[in-house]
Design goal:
By secondary structure, the chain is mainly α. The chain contains nine helices and four strands. About 35% of the residues are buried.
Length: about 210
């Protein structure tokens, strides 16, 4: 399999971490959606990452869709998410919030990097969404005293929260400095000690 995208993207990184935890071999092509857009387009017409190219040439897109496939390949006993029920629902709910947070963080980067005139209305709306989601995720994380949300090892929700908070820390230091978010900070720190997290990591590179 071929995983396309740079690991400073929380979307790409969550897929790479999951594949590493699953011990699924893959070739990594660290292509940028700006600098390597046409190369990505050969596999994904949206020119977005992550894109996972399977052995038969099929290209899967969007991290949530890719992880559904990887879970199926891993099997229910090894999957990084409960097979059904309330626990699975909560995994999906928290993962969606974390990735939605990342969508807004990316939108803020593009707004400031790509537009000569920054829309204050749009920026304020995104920042309000970021603050509200962080408050919800912080409260959810503080409910759990264990190192991970749903067990003794990290699952998809743990990966999503850790990748999102790392992205916030690296790409938006001004927002990160506004609050401590001790639950999320401790969660990220615990996850980053797992070898798969350190293996799938890259300093943030702003779009140019």
């Amino acid at each position: 399999m071929i995983l396309i995208g740079q690991f400073d993207s929380p979307f790409v990184r969550r897929v790479g971490i999951a594949m590493t935890l699953y011990e699924m071999a893959f070739e990594h092509r660290p292509w940028s959606v700006f600098g390597d857009g046409e190369q990505i387009a050969a596999y994904n017409p949206l020119r977005r990452v992550p894109t996972l190219v399977l052995g038969d040439g099929t290209a899967l897109i969007e991290s949530a869709t890719i992880l559904l496939h990887l879970d199926e390949e891993a099997g229910p006993e090894r999957a990084l998410i409960a097979e059904r029920g309330e626990t699975r629902r909560d995994h999906l709910r928290l993962s969606a919030l974390a990735m939605g947070l990342c969508d807004k963080l990316v939108a803020l980067i593009y707004e400031r990097a790509l537009h000569e005139t920054v829309s204050e209305v749009w920026t304020q709306r995104c920042e309000a969404q970021v603050a509200d989601v962080l408050a919800v995720l912080e409260a959810e994380r503080l409910k759990v005293e264990a190192a991970y949300l749903f067990g003794e090892t990290p699952g998809h929700a743990d990966i999503a929260l850790a990748c999102a908070f790392r992205f916030l820390t690296d790409a938006h230091p001004a927002i990160r400095a506004r609050d401590e978010w001790p639950g999320l900070a401790a969660h990220m720190a615990a996850c980053e000690t797992v070898p798969a997290f350190s293996a799938i990591s890259q300093p943030f590179i702003p779009p140019a």
